[in-house]
């Protein structure tokens, strides 16, 4: 059955909760000037550091090429359905942030939760960029500072004889977060020898203390790097689309160009072929291990940036009849393809490093910062023209993270400005002022992560606040609300009204059954106590602080449901029916039955002094 396209009528306005309406002006909602802008923005946001430094390690750890079987399966039953759900929901409702959930107003807590998650993510994720900037600043000397001993941060046990030193790794499962360091001391740990790269990372960059309770002093150099990074982010988004649109193509395309250059250089190095073979070598016995499937699922939800709310915001700026179904598959192909290609880049270099050191590749393979700030810098130091390759690598790392940071901060700013009453003090401020306040707030919190105990704080944020358990919780409720509260068949009809045909039935089956059940099981099975570097166990009060960060977003959903039910009049069934009835925008008029017009958003009164505050990369 074919459905008519409904055009591009987007003249409705965002609303706030409790049926009060923001008068943001009478302009139509902005749309992408070119559809490629939307594709590039999604690529920039969803394709990030996890694609480069986690997927290759998981593939190596979980059976090489065999890992692609559970990974691809999870892409089609978990990644693509939820990815498509978020984009389509934003495009259909023409709203971002909290207002997206006008489709089921009782569950607006989902929008609040995503804003809390993305705030935490913006706060700690930038530290990876800070470390990358710090390494980049130290990459213009020859020899590279981490390639030699004799510096003020080195100990008497420092060694540059890499053929005698290798890194062990923990084969215990780790969460899909950027802080899962699996680097321990060297193979000669009992002799006290330490690699110069490890000492540069721990004693110069991190100045690592003994635990979370040993805060130590603040590093002045790291504060300067932190300030510089936030200034870059601020000036890239302070004007919204006007400023961010000028850099989105560069930040999305440049990392791919560098990856291609690094690939051709990597495969030309001795030992590269052995590294690639090791990366793809199949181990069929791994398929029977539950952890392999858990790693595949968690990697999908993490790398696809599901549950952060930014995808709905990006989708809300599409034309109403844009083929978001096709876009979802294209973006999934780009995302997963990038992860797979990055494996060749990483393992060609690791193969070279293993050959140079005379050790097995399994002893140099790392995940997370262990790859970005220990294994890869170490490999670069062994190459001819080492400073050149170090500059390229850390520049790629910086740009790869910046576009994700841009969209994350912009999505949070958009949600904040949607909720501010226009006549309030903050609501009447210029956009530049609101952006500055948000960036300064995050910068202040980040000061705790540039102390000697900062790495422990960083991992606490990473493990609890914006990955793993919180994203799985968010994805679970998104599927439940759309599939069971609003109705999977009903939403499939809505999608058909936008794109002209119904998507494959497997989409609604995944929303209704497969994805929620799988996410719930992974959520229960995958939880483990937080441990740093497979050695340091966090104290009980650190765990309490971590759960406070997690529950600050997770409780938004049930508390909002409870609050709305208690403050609504009527019987329980009447309250449920009223609070789960969608609030439609005026662009829905073409296919809504007449009886639903009472639930339309009212037109904003014409007011030439008001401003349309919503913008997103």
TrEMBL record:
<feature type="binding site">
    <location>
        <position position="403"/>
    </location>
    <ligand>
        <name>Na(+) 1</name>
    </ligand>
</feature>
<dbReference type="InterPro" id="IPR037272">
    <property type="entry name" value="SNS_sf"/>
</dbReference>
<keyword id="KW-1133">Transmembrane helix</keyword>
<feature type="transmembrane region" description="Helical">
    <location>
        <begin position="464"/>
        <end position="486"/>
    </location>
</feature>
<feature type="transmembrane region" description="Helical">
    <location>
        <begin position="110"/>
        <end position="136"/>
    </location>
</feature>
<keyword id="KW-0915">Sodium</keyword>
<feature type="transmembrane region" description="Helical">
    <location>
        <begin position="433"/>
        <end position="458"/>
    </location>
</feature>
<dbReference type="GO" id="GO:0005332">
    <property type="term" value="F:gamma-aminobutyric acid:sodium:chloride symporter activity"/>
</dbReference>
<feature type="binding site">
    <location>
        <position position="47"/>
    </location>
    <ligand>
        <name>Na(+) 1</name>
    </ligand>
</feature>
<keyword id="KW-1015">Disulfide bond</keyword>
<feature type="transmembrane region" description="Helical">
    <location>
        <begin position="506"/>
        <end position="525"/>
    </location>
</feature>
<feature type="transmembrane region" description="Helical">
    <location>
        <begin position="218"/>
        <end position="237"/>
    </location>
</feature>
<protein>
    <recommendedName>
        <fullName>Transporter</fullName>
    </recommendedName>
</protein>
<feature type="transmembrane region" description="Helical">
    <location>
        <begin position="300"/>
        <end position="317"/>
    </location>
</feature>
<feature type="binding site">
    <location>
        <position position="335"/>
    </location>
    <ligand>
        <name>Na(+) 1</name>
    </ligand>
</feature>
<feature type="binding site">
    <location>
        <position position="44"/>
    </location>
    <ligand>
        <name>Na(+) 2</name>
    </ligand>
</feature>
<feature type="binding site">
    <location>
        <position position="303"/>
    </location>
    <ligand>
        <name>Na(+) 1</name>
    </ligand>
</feature>
<feature type="binding site">
    <location>
        <position position="51"/>
    </location>
    <ligand>
        <name>Na(+) 1</name>
    </ligand>
</feature>
<feature type="binding site">
    <location>
        <position position="404"/>
    </location>
    <ligand>
        <name>Na(+) 1</name>
    </ligand>
</feature>
<feature type="transmembrane region" description="Helical">
    <location>
        <begin position="388"/>
        <end position="413"/>
    </location>
</feature>
<feature type="transmembrane region" description="Helical">
    <location>
        <begin position="249"/>
        <end position="280"/>
    </location>
</feature>
<feature type="binding site">
    <location>
        <position position="46"/>
    </location>
    <ligand>
        <name>Na(+) 1</name>
    </ligand>
</feature>
<dbReference type="Pfam" id="PF00209">
    <property type="entry name" value="SNF"/>
</dbReference>
<feature type="disulfide bond">
    <location>
        <begin position="149"/>
        <end position="158"/>
    </location>
</feature>
<comment type="similarity">
    <text>Belongs to the sodium:neurotransmitter symporter (SNF) (TC 2.A.22) family.</text>
</comment>
<dbReference type="InterPro" id="IPR000175">
    <property type="entry name" value="Na/ntran_symport"/>
</dbReference>
<keyword id="KW-0769">Symport</keyword>
<feature type="transmembrane region" description="Helical">
    <location>
        <begin position="545"/>
        <end position="566"/>
    </location>
</feature>
<keyword id="KW-0813">Transport</keyword>
<feature type="binding site">
    <location>
        <position position="400"/>
    </location>
    <ligand>
        <name>Na(+) 1</name>
    </ligand>
</feature>
<feature type="transmembrane region" description="Helical">
    <location>
        <begin position="68"/>
        <end position="89"/>
    </location>
</feature>
<dbReference type="GO" id="GO:0046872">
    <property type="term" value="F:metal ion binding"/>
</dbReference>
<feature type="transmembrane region" description="Helical">
    <location>
        <begin position="38"/>
        <end position="56"/>
    </location>
</feature>
<keyword id="KW-0479">Metal-binding</keyword>
<keyword id="KW-0472">Membrane</keyword>
<keyword id="KW-0812">Transmembrane</keyword>
<feature type="transmembrane region" description="Helical">
    <location>
        <begin position="329"/>
        <end position="354"/>
    </location>
</feature>
<dbReference type="GO" id="GO:0005886">
    <property type="term" value="C:plasma membrane"/>
</dbReference>
